[in-house]
């Protein structure tokens, strides 16, 4: 690395340290699970570092990365292969031609996953996962990350009116999905109404 590149990296790293928890929370809420969140965050940070020369000093680094992350998330959703549901009772042919049973991994994971499950409400995440990506991003940015409508609009590259409309529709869908549990699951006054 040349001296200019070192300084650039140090600036990026300093900003990243300040915002890493919020960036991971955004990635987790968009993607719905820790593994995909790590992948999304990594992809977004690679793109952010590559474009770091376009970051305007004095502006909000996290908002800038949110925009990159949102577009990366949409790209991942578009490229994600459609999957076929299989019955666990139906054996499948292994590579060597023998029959094998489907193995179901333990999704509870290790201690960090248990901590995340405790901190990040599972019913809320399931309801978020059911939202269309553009609705999910607006809810995460406005209601969970605390951005203003204008900041969300800048992060997603859409008009403020679109943000308000998507947020209204997303909140209605979340209330419907969560039923009477909405007040218990959300600590957010805007969603608990």
| Major sheet size, sense and barrel closure | 2 strands, antiparallel
Helicity level = 55-70%
The largest sheet has its strands arranged as: 1-2
Distance between the termini: 53 Å
Radius of gyration from the alpha-carbon trace, in angstroms: 20 Å
What's the number of extended β-strand segments? 2
Strand content: under 5%
Uncertain spans: 184-193
Task: Please tell me about this protein's structure.
The chain folds into 2 domains: 1-80, Orthogonal Bundle (Rna Polymerase Sigma Factor, Chain: A); 117-193, Orthogonal Bundle (Arc Repressor Mutant, subunit A). It has 193 residues and is mainly α. Helix content is 67%, strand content 2%. Strands 1-2 form a two-stranded antiparallel ribbon. The chain has helices at 3-31, 34-50, 61-79, 111-119, 122-130, 133-144, 149-156, 160-178, 182-185, 189-192; strands spanning 92-93, 99-100. Helix 1 crosses helix 3 (61-79), helix 2 crosses helix 3 and helix 5 crosses helix 8 (160-178). The protein starts with a helix and ends with a helix. It is built from 10 helices and 2 strands, in the order αααββααααααα.
Task: Name some characteristics of this structure.
2 domains, globular, 193 residues, two-stranded antiparallel sheet, Arc Repressor Mutant, subunit A, mainly alpha, disordered C terminus, Rna Polymerase Sigma Factor, Chain: A, 10 helices
């Amino acid at each position: 690395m040349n001296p200019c590149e070192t300084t650039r990296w140090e600036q990026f790293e300093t900003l990243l340290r300040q915002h890493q928890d919020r960036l991971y929370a955004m990635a987790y809420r968009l993607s719905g699970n820790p593994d995909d969140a790590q992948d999304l965050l990594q992809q977004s940070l690679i793109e952010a570092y590559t474009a770091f020369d376009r970051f305007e000093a004095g502006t909000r680094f996290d908002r800038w990365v949110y925009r990159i992350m949102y577009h990366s998330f949409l790209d991942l959703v578009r490229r994600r292969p459609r999957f076929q549901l299989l019955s666990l009772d139906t054996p499948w042919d292994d590579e060597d031609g023998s029959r094998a049973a489907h193995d179901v991994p333990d999704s509870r994971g290790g201690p960090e996953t248990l901590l995340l499950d405790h901190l990040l409400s599972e019913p809320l995440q399931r309801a978020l996962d059911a939202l269309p990506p553009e609705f999910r991003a607006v809810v995460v940015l406005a209601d969970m990350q605390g951005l203003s409508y204008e900041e969300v609009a800048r992060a997603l590259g859409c008009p403020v009116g679109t943000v308000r409309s998507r947020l209204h529709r997303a909140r209605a869908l979340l209330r419907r999905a969560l039923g009477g549990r909405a007040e218990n699951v959300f600590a957010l006054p805007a969603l608990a109404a």
